[in-house]
Amino acid sequence: MASRTFTSTLRRGLRVSPRNGVTAPYRRFLNTETAPSLYAARAHVVGARTGHVDGENLKVDLTMAKALGGPGDQGKTNPEELFAAGYGACFQSAMNAVAPSLGVKMPTKTEDSIVESTVELVGSMKDLDMGLRVQLLVKVRGLAKEDLEKVVYKARQVCPYSRATKDNVYTTVRCETM
């Protein structure tokens, strides 16, 4: 298994060129305030971290994680798990979307492309000074390490979660070929 962490390159927002690898920093021109909405997800939340969430296709009970002094109830979730699930799914979709433009064919079997996402609540609850830290572990079977890294670079540029967290949430991405 090959593994490589390249956080600093990703955080600089470098763009991958199919011809020679990395090029100039990527600049985003989408104005999210005025851009047309492609989809809107809504959630009705009551009870904060120990409450309930209702959405169009979602009904979830929340619990405070044991690590935060809560009960960590089985069958319930928390905001960090929901964020990790959303980020992982979005990032993997971005990988699948950008791969053809790089001349890379992603695996057709779902189990051959995996994104493991970890979202940590960091800081001080006592001082009410908290934030998030994210680690993504991307595992793909059947791709050369260089091709996988190109796909991940490009996915980082287009994934809405990556764009939303850029320069605000410390994020590391590690790639492994299976």
Automatic annotation (TrEMBL):
One of its GO terms (biological process) is response to oxidative stress. SUPFAM superfamilies: OsmC-like. It comes from the Eukaryota. It holds the Pfam family OsmC. InterPro entries: KH_dom-like_a/b, OHR, OsmC/Ohr_fam, OsmC/Ohrsf. Belongs to the OsmC/Ohr family. This is OsmC/Ohr family. The lineage of its organism: Eukaryota, Fungi, Dikarya, Ascomycota, Pezizomycotina.
